[in-house]
C-alpha cells in the first residue's frame, strides 16, 4: 500500500513538473510575456501601403513600445489600408496631430508603427483617426529608383538623361533581357 | 495478431509481410482504443505506468535537454557571431527546440528508455504465457496491459518534451549569457518577441503527443506479437527502437509540413 502511494505521489509530482514546464515556456519565453495588456484605447490610421506590417506589431513612441497593431484591413470605399492601433491607457495624452509612420527596425527587421508627437493642445480620444500618416518605405522601390536614376538628378537634363541610357541601362539590358526571352522557350 | 515471423524473410514476400504488419498494427490500434474505456477501471495501473514511463525518464530527459541546449548555444553563438547576430541566440535556440529538437529528441530518447522496456515486459509476458493466463482469468490483457501503457505514453511524452525544452533553454542561457557574456535582457527579449505560443509551443506539444502515441503503439504491438522465445523478445525490442525512430522522424516531417 505504501509503495502504491509513493507511485501515485511520484506520478502527481511528475505531472505537476511537466505542466509547470509548459506554463513556464508558454508565459516566460513567448510573446505573451510582452502582452500584459491592461486598459487600452483604439486609434485608427490609414496607410496607402503597409508593407510587411503584421498584426500585433509594436507601436512605438520615441522608441518605447506603448501599444500594438490590433487589426489591418482594406477600406472598401477608399481602397487604402485601415490599421487599428490599441494604445495603453497610461499614454492617453497624445496630441491629436501626432503622426504615424511605418518603420523597419534595422535594415531587414520587422516593421512597426512609429508615432511622432505633434504640438496640438487637444488630445487623442478613443476611436480617433490619425490625420498625418506615412506609408512604409519599400526597400525594393528605393533600390529601383536608385538604379534607374543613379542619383537624385533632374531627368530633363540631357547629360543626365544620356548617362542612364548608356551606362546602367546598357549594363542592365543584357542581364535582364536574355532570361525573359529564353524562359518561355523552356 | 499472432503473426509468427520467419527469419530470414524471403525477399519476394517481404513487401507482403510489411503490409501485413502495418495492417495488423492498425487493427491493434483500434483494439487498444476500444479497450480504453474498460481500462479506466484499472486506473491505478495507468498511474503506475505514467510513473514508470514518465517520472522515471525524467533524469535522462533533463540531462539530455540541458546538454542539447548547451551545445546549441555554443554552436549557434559561434555561427551567429560571424554575422554579428548573437543577439538572436535566444530566438534561434528556443525556436529550434520548440519546433523540432524538443519533440523529436525526446521521442527518440523515450523510445529507447520507455518503448524498449514496454516491449520487453509485454514480450516476456507473452513468452511466459502470462497474457493467456489473464485471458483465462477473464482479465482482458488489452485493457489491463496494453491500454494503460498506451495512455501513459500519450500523457507522459508531451510533459517530458516540455521539461526537455525548458532545460534546453536554461542550458543555452547558461552558455550564452553566463559563459559567453551575452546580455541577459537581449537574450530574453529577442526570444519573447519572436516566439508564438500557438505556432511554436503548442504545435510542439501536439507533435510530442502524437509521437508518444506512435511509440506506445509500436512498443505494445511489438511486445504483444513477439515470437514467444528469448530470441523473439530480443528481436521485438530492437524492432521497437528501429521502427519508432523511423516513424517519428518521418512523421515529424509530415506534421511539420501540415502544421506550418
Mind sketching the topology for me?
The complex is a heterodimer of chains A (186) and B (260).
Chain A: H1 2-28, E1 40-47, E2 58-61, E3 64-74, E4 81-88, E5 99-104, E6 111-116, E7 133-134, H2 139-149, H3 158-166, H4 168-182
Parallel strand pairs in A: 2-6, 5-7
Antiparallel strand pairs in A: 1-4, 2-3, 3-4, 5-6
Helix pairs in contact in A: 3-4
Chain B: H1 11-39, H2 43-53, H3 58-82, H4 89-127, H5 130-136, H6 141-179, H7 184-194, H8 197-224, H9 230-259
Can you summarize this structure?
Chain A is an alpha/beta fold and 186 residues long.
Q: What level of helicity do the residues of chain A show?
A: 25-40%
Report the structural category of chain B.
Answer: mainly alpha
DSSP summary, beta strand count of chain A: 7
State the order of secondary-structure elements of chain A, H for helix, E for strand. HEEEEEEEHHH
Structural class of chain A: alpha/beta
What is the CATH architecture descriptor of the largest domain in chain A?
Answer: Beta Barrel
Number of helices in the DSSP assignment of chain A = 4
Average pLDDT for all residues of chain A: 76
- Count of alpha and pi helical runs of chain B: 9
Biggest sheet overview of chain B: none
> Largest contact between protein chains?
A-B, 23 and 32 residues
Question: What is the domain tally of chain A?
Answer: 3
The stretches of 5 or more residues of chain B where confidence is low (pLDDT under 50) are: none
Reading the helices and strands of chain B in chain order gives HHHHHHHHH
Low-confidence stretches of chain A: 159-186
> Could you give the distance between the termini of chain B?
37 Å
Amino acid at each position: 500500500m505504501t509503495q502504491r502511494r509513493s507511485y501515485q505521489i511520484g506520478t502527481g509530482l511528475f505531472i505537476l513538473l511537466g505542466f509547470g514546464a509548459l506554463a513556464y515556456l508558454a508565459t516566460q519565453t513567448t510573446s505573451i510575456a510582452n502582452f500584459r495588456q491592461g486598459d487600452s484605447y483604439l486609434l485608427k490610421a490609414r496607410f496607402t501601403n503597409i508593407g510587411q506590417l503584421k498584426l500585433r506589431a509594436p507601436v512605438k513612441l520615441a522608441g518605447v513600445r506603448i501599444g500594438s497593431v490590433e487589426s489591418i484591413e482594406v477600406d472598401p470605399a477608399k481602397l487604402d489600408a485601415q490599421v487599428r492601433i490599441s494604445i495603453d491607457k497610461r499614454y492617453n495624452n497624445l496630441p491629436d496631430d501626432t503622426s504615424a509612420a511605418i518603420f523597419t527596425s534595422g535594415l531587414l527587421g520587422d516593421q512597426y508603427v512609429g508615432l511622432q508627437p505633434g504640438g496640438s493642445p487637444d488630445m487623442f480620444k478613443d476611436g480617433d483617426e490619425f490625420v498625418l500618416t506615412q506609408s512604409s518605405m519599400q526597400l525594393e522601390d528605393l533600390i529601383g529608383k536608385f538604379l534607374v536614376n543613379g542619383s537624385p538628378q533632374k531627368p530633363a537634363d540631357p547629360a543626365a538623361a544620356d548617362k542612364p541610357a548608356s551606362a546602367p541601362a546598357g549594363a542592365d539590358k543584357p542581364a535582364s533581357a536574355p532570361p525573359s526571352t529564353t524562359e518561355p522557350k523552356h | 495478431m499472432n503473426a509468427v515471423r520467419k527469419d530470414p524473410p524471403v525477399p519476394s514476400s517481404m513487401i507482403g509481410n510489411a503490409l501485413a504488419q502495418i495492417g495488423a498494427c492498425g487493427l491493434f490500434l483500434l483494439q487498444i482504443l476500444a479497450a480504453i474505456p474498460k481500462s479506466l477501471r484499472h486506473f491505478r495501473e495507468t498511474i503506475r505506468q505514467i510513473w514508470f514511463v514518465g517520472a522515471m525518464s525524467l533524469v535522462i530527459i533533463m540531462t539530455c535537454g540541458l546538454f542539447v541546449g548547451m551545445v546549441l548555444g555554443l554552436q549557434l553563438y559561434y555561427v551567429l557571431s560571424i554575422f554579428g547576430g548573437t543577439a538572436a541566440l535566444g530566438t534561434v535556440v528556443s525556436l529550434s527546440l520548440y519546433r523540432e529538437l524538443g519533440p523529436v529528441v525526446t521521442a527518440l530518447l523515450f523510445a529507447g528508455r520507455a518503448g524498449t522496456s514496454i516491449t520487453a515486459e509485454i514480450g516476456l509476458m507473452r513468452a511466459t504465457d502470462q497474457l493467456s493466463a489473464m485471458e483465462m482469468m477473464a482479465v482482458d490483457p488489452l485493457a489491463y496491459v496494453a491500454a494503460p501503457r498506451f495512455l501513459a505514453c500519450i500523457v507522459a511524452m508531451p510533459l517530458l518534451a516540455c521539461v526537455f525544452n525548458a532545460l534546453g533553454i536554461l542550458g543555452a542561457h547558461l552558455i550564452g549569457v553566463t559563459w559567453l557574456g551575452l546580455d541577459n535582457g537581449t537574450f530574453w527579449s529577442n526570444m519573447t518577441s519572436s516566439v508564438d505560443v500557438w505556432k511554436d509551443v503548442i504545435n510542439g506539444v501536439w507533435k510530442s503527443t502524437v509521437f508518444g502515441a506512435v511509440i506506445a503503439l509500436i512498443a505494445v504491438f511489438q511486445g504483444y506479437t513477439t515470437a514467444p522465445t528469448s530470441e523473439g523478445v530480443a528481436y521485438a525490442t530492437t524492432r521497437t527502437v528501429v521502427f519508432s525512430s523511423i516513424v517519428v522522424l518521418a512523421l515529424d516531417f509530415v506534421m511539420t509540413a501540415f502544421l506550418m
